[in-house]
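Table S2 (text version). Query chain:
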Amino acid sequence: MLGIDRHAARSVWTAALIVLLLVLLYVVRTTLFVFILALLFAYLLSPLVNFLDRLLPSSRTRTLALALAYVIFVGLVILLGAQIGARVVEEANTLAKRFPDMLASWQKPSPSAPAPINSLKEQIVSRARAEIGSRTNDIVSALTRAGLKLLTVASDLIYVVIIPILGFFFLKDAHVIRQHILDLVDDGPRRVLLDDLLADIHLLLAHYMRALVFLSLAAFTAYSIFFAITGMPYALLLAAVAGILEFIPMIGPLTAGAIILIIAAVSGAPVLVVLIFLLAYRVVQDYVISPHLMGKGVELHPLLVLFGVFAGAELAGIAGTFLSVPTLALARVLYVRFRRARLSSRLAPTSPVRL
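Corresponding structure-token output:
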């Protein structure tokens, strides 16, 4: 009547809703990140819960299996913290005390080394000390705001408690949540498509969390064994750093490698041997172990992974970096499923009709 095209109006309304949804997600990004971590934590415990549920007598709920899984998980965390965590903290404190002297000793010119090498070492140390000195004023001024930071620390500790609680509900009511999502769509092709998408997302997250845990454990084990054999100082600390940084794609392993090489250089360890080991391990992990664990649903081109890592870091810092790979893999799953559904809908009318 007013000359407004219905199709155009619907498109504008849909675009406005999408923009509003994106703005809302950005506003609640912290809460959303907590729920995502809880979901990933649930996938981390899911194999143990399923195993215990099969062993226990049949019941209508998985509450007993969930309770036992949480008890086992907390027990393992306490055990590892007592056996490994104490040694890691001790090595970290020792390294913090000795690092300035180690750096100064490494800076001294070596008679057997070429002059350019000695000059390069002096420039590196001078640059590092200049950076530390330039940050001193910022650190001192930040101490006056330390009281306000206590509130932030307290809220972070609350998240440590909230995430396992949310993960418990995800594990307990996963089938109910899935059914409620399916009930949003009527029976038909769209419901089938949604069912397939949920199944693909479930496999994607399960493979991703399993791969992250195994890659982290593999890195910690391999680095610990190699450092123990070669007599690398602060072996357990460096192995723990390498294992933890495996959770951050691309940037994490590179950062761990740089830290290890710096400690090896200033402590007098064989840098060339350490470098060869790091390169060999990355080749094995990136081209043998990781593709086998991740599965076809999580395989992404390295250029796409690098783009996602840097874009995620720019948008949301460490959280964005951590979620970049599963987000890209999820986008890939959605694209493949919708593309298949569109091709199927196009080919369906052309099939011959039998009378």
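Notes on Table S2: The CA atoms of residues 177 and 267 lie 54 Å apart. The radius of gyration is 26 Å.
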